[in-house]
Every structure is written in structure tokens, then in C-alpha cells.
Amino acid sequence: MPRTIALAVLALGTLVGATTLGAQQALGARPDAKTVLANQGPKGDKGDKGDRGDKGPPGDRGLPGAMGPTGPTGAAVGYEVKVGGVEVVPANSSHGTAVVCSPGKKVVGGGVGLAQGTASTSVVVKESYPDPRGLGWITSVTNTGSVQLTVTAYAICITAN
């Protein structure tokens, strides 16, 4: 039987106070949190960790960020294509040629081609590369045919910052 610390009934039959859960429930009263806590047993051991929950829905898209600062000026300006002179490559021989960039410019590309009006399948490009100092383009070709050929070297140059 539950303990009752104080129970007072007024002449009108109203429950004034009860401190045990059993007394309140017996009279049809709803227990308050304070009363329930007062009648709890000792604290139990910590339980095992629960399983990970499901992934939540994706969040709303954020607002666009502020515009970033202006980037630095590009490093390449003053583009020019330098065309070397027409070079004669005698039959069954090799010949090297080069083209140099204008002062203050650096080479970024280049090559060699048969001069205008020359058609042949007997030319072999042996070398085509930038000058190690970046000042122009160097080429070397071999003519495997029985007639002379004409070739021209090209360099793509820019003003480098």
C-alpha cells in the first residue's frame, strides 16, 4: 500500500495535497513531473550506443558568394609570328635554319615548312625546337630526294612580363 505523507480533504471533498503517485492515481488525479521524479528508483547503467540514423534530406541551396577580386593581367601580350628566310636544302643533304624573335619578345612555339610553291615528299624534319634562351626557333631538315628543296622556319613570339 503506498505511503501518504499528507492528505487533506476539505469539507467540500477536494483533494488538497498528496505526495505519492498511488494516492493521486487512486483519486483520479494526474501526477505532475515532480511527483513522478520523487518516486523513481536509483539511476541505471548507461545503455549501448544506438545505430546511426538515416541520412537527412539535402539542405536548401545557399546564396551566391560575393564576386572575387580582379585577377592579374595576363602574362602574354604582343603576339607575333616571325617568318624566317627561304633556305635551300640541296638534294640528299641536311640543312639547319633558325628564326629569331623581335627584341624583348620570347618564343612560345614554332616550326618549319616547305617554302611556298615547293611540293615534295622527300623532306624529313629532324629537329624543331625552341632556342634554349627562348629567343627563337631552331629547325633541321634532311632532303632525301634528288632535287633541291626550299624550307622556311617560323616562330611564334610574345612580349613576356
Brief account:
The protein is mainly beta and about 160 residues long.
Task: Characterise the protein shown here.
It is elongated and about 115 Å long. The chain is 7% helix and 35% strand. The chain is mainly beta. The chain has helices spanning 21-26, 33-38, and strands at residues 76-83, 87-89, 93-100, 105-114, 123-130, 136-143, 149-160.
How do the strands and helices of this protein lay out in sequence?
Blueprint: H1 21-26, H2 33-38, E1 76-83, E2 87-89, E3 93-100, E4 105-114, E5 123-130, E6 136-143, E7 149-160
Antiparallel strand pairs: 1-7, 2-7, 3-6, 4-7, 5-6
Integer tally of domains: 2
Determine and state the CATH class of the largest domain: Mainly Beta
| CATH arch. level architecture of the largest domain | Sandwich
Number of E-type strands = 7
What fraction of residues sit in β-strands?
A: 35-45%
Q: Average the pLDDT over all residues and give the rounded result.
A: 79
- Return the CATH topology of the largest domain: Immunoglobulin-like
Total number of helical segments? 2
Q: Shape, please?
A: elongated
Helical coverage, percent range: under 10%
| Beginning-to-end CA distance, first to last residue | 97 Å
Q: What sequence of helices (H) and strands (E) makes up the elements?
A: HHEEEEEEE
Structural class of the secondary structure composition? mainly beta
CA-based gyration radius: 48 Å
Query: Main sheet, how many strands, which sense, barrel?
Result: 4 strands, antiparallel
Low-pLDDT stretches: 1-20
